[in-house]
Amino acid sequence: MIGATLTGFFIMGIPQFFGKIDHYHILWYVLLILSVSPIGHCLSIDSWRNNIPQINGVKSSNYGVPIKIVMILIGLSYFFPGFWKFSISGFEWAFSENLKFKLYSKWLMLDGWTPFFRIDHYPFLYQSAAFMTLVIEIGFIFALFYKKIRPLFVIGALGFHVSVWYFMKNPFFSLMVLYVIFINWSKVFAFISNTLKNFNLSEVEVLNKPKSYLKYFIVGGFLIFGNVATGSLLIDSWPFGVYPTFASIESATVPSILIQAENENSEVVSESIPLLDANFKNEFNSVVRLRGYLGNLLNANTPEPQSYRALADIFYDSKNLNPDNYTLKFYKIRLSTNPDKSSKVNQKQELLYSL
User: Fold this and answer.
1) Cα–Cα distance between 209 and 175 in angstroms, integer?
2) Number of H helices, E strands in the chain
3) Alpha-carbon dihedral sign for residues 92, 94, 99, 100
């Protein structure tokens, strides 16, 4: 686990600095926590062979403390996106057409795909869903400390992820897979104890009792502080970063880039919108990463020639054009996200770069 933690920091971190940050940070946090936890005992083959009783994570603090740290980290990953949604946009984030347009923006990146059930046709439903998103994201961290309402928020958050997967094809499996920590495994084990040989809950409480909790406080405090700091300051990086906030109010159009090739007579002979072009999507291996790459260009204060040349290479290869014969111009445009509207390009706004 220590080896996985050290190499994972590097391997998992490499993609974070090229176009878009992928938010699987919590998986690395779990690696770090497991590297200082007695993970080799729980349901392991060695424990079974040596007749060591299974782990009761509720009664054994040696296992319960790391689990609680992971719970808090999950709560923080929800809290700051919800906090910034409400701080920046207030109740308008929920009680407006905001969520509908966010769905449209995502469907645009999915080549116009739409779900079987079109929730965007029902304002009451999508506004209620948006409001519950605020409640779950902001309230989850506090619900962890109250056993009576904790299951409601856990079920609500899981339902939120399932809904996001259904309507936006964005599952956040890195968070969903960790929901096993909210299951009371001691009750599960007790239920099947009659069929498991050498299962003895009474012995588990004193099994591997820790001499000190210092390592948990050091690692847990380091991870919690990093998340609170980046979440409070709205910093998105690696290994700490705020999870996607989607805090702004979405409009009916999104900014993008139009590429046009002009001949020596300044006539447009070919053009492409990378966000809608399969060749660009395939090259970036992810439409989300492509959108992040384009977003960096659109938000840059000064042109980045190398980044534009990378797009130019893809354009010329896909169009089978000789770069020596054309001038390539990059324009900032706005695209309509309405899936029921055939024309996507609203207008050509401004020249970004000429190559």
Assistant:
1) 29
2) 13, 4
3) negative
C-alpha closest to that of 34 among 52, 8, 54: 8
- Phi, psi (deg, nearest 5) at residue 329: -120, 135
Would you say 34 and 26 are in contact if contact means Cβ atoms under 8 Å apart? no
Mean pLDDT per 10-residue run, the chain (355 residues)?
A: 92 82 91 83 68 53 83 96 95 95 90 90 95 96 93 94 92 87 77 58 46 83 96 93 92 91 89 90 85 87 88 92 90 89 71 89
d(CA 159, CA 161): 5
Q: Which residues pair with 272 in a beta bridge?
A: 259
Kindly report each contact of residues 145-152 with a partner whose C-beta sits within 8 Å and lies 24 or more positions away, as own/partner: 150/182, 151/182
| Distance in angstroms (rounded) separating the CA atoms of residues 208 and 34 | 15
Predicted local distance difference test score (pLDDT) of residue 287: 83
Contacts (Cβ under 8 Å, ≥6 apart) of 261: 268, 269, 270, 271, 315, 319, 321, 326, 327, 328
Number of Cα atoms under 13 Å in the Cβ half of residue 109: 22
User: What is the Cα–Cα distance from 275 to 108, expressed in whole angstroms?
Assistant: 9
Count of CB atoms within 10 A of residue 157's CB?
Answer: 23
What number of other Cβ atoms are within 10 A of residue 84's Cβ? 20
- pTM, full prediction: 0.82
